[in-house]
Amino acid sequence: MMFNLLRSDLYRLVHGRKFWVVTVLSVLLTAGLLVTLMLLGTVSGASQTDTDGVSVTANVTAGLMASARTMESHTAILSSSGLGGSSILSMFIAVLAVLTVMDDWDAGFVKNLIAGRHSRMTYVASRLLMPTLLTVWNVVVAIASLELTCLVLGIRFRHTESIGAYLGFCGLKTLGMVAFVLIVVALTMIARSKAFGIAAAVLVGAGIMGSLMNIILSVIAVYLPWAAQLAQWLPSNTAKLYTDSAGLLATTVGGTSLGMPVWAHALICFAGWIILSVGVALLVNRRRDVC
Description:
It is globular, with a radius of gyration of 20 Å. About 40% of the residues are buried. The protein is mostly helical and about 290 residues long. About 65% of the residues lie in helices and about 5% in strands. The chain has helices at about 1-15, 15-40, 75-80, 90-105, 110-115, 120-155, 165-190, 195-205, 210-225, 235-240, 260-285; strands spanning about 40-45, 65, 70, 155, 250-255, 255. It has a two-stranded antiparallel sheet with strand order 1-2.
């Protein structure tokens, strides 16, 4: 039942305009931005230097110059592209996910589906799986278009990561984006409001939600000191911990000890938020009236 619903959703989505508009935006926000910055003359590199006092990357002076056309690494240029959690790309993907989820409510499809004695849980699960697939698709498109643009422009890299390090970095970036989108979708399904969902997508994508949560936790930490540790587990803060594949090996970032490598912290954080978002959405809508 769930896969039948998912297949139907994918068919409608691929034959609609929203899907392709966001796909084109994914290309423009990565490859298009890189070409624009090349024409302007420079692209700033990313750096990650804290790991128990030892530098884990050599890209402190990294940058893409129009003349030299060199960059520190593949993952460094992915970081410079803004691919990650709080970004314009994540905002557009989240908005698409909200519109896709709420289309059924607006059309009355959900009411007819439940009236036919189909399980609410099956339907909700398919609604949560769809944004996950949308996110993975757009992230893959963004990465592929960026790498292809680098190839076409003849950009060279000062060092090349191993396949495992590169795929691990891309995997965490994708997982982080999925976490951001599913948080927005879960909030939308709880509120059952397209306007609220779009607003949540903008707040998350612009980083406003993360900043607000940091402020709230800092206020709570005045009375409950342990609350300050929770800020490390916010998706927005976790996405800032690493800027390339070398940064994934750090155990101390920004003077704060994580007690584990960055990749392990990010994996636990993003997976935890995904599980929490899915669990809350399923629990709230388990017996809730569809009207």
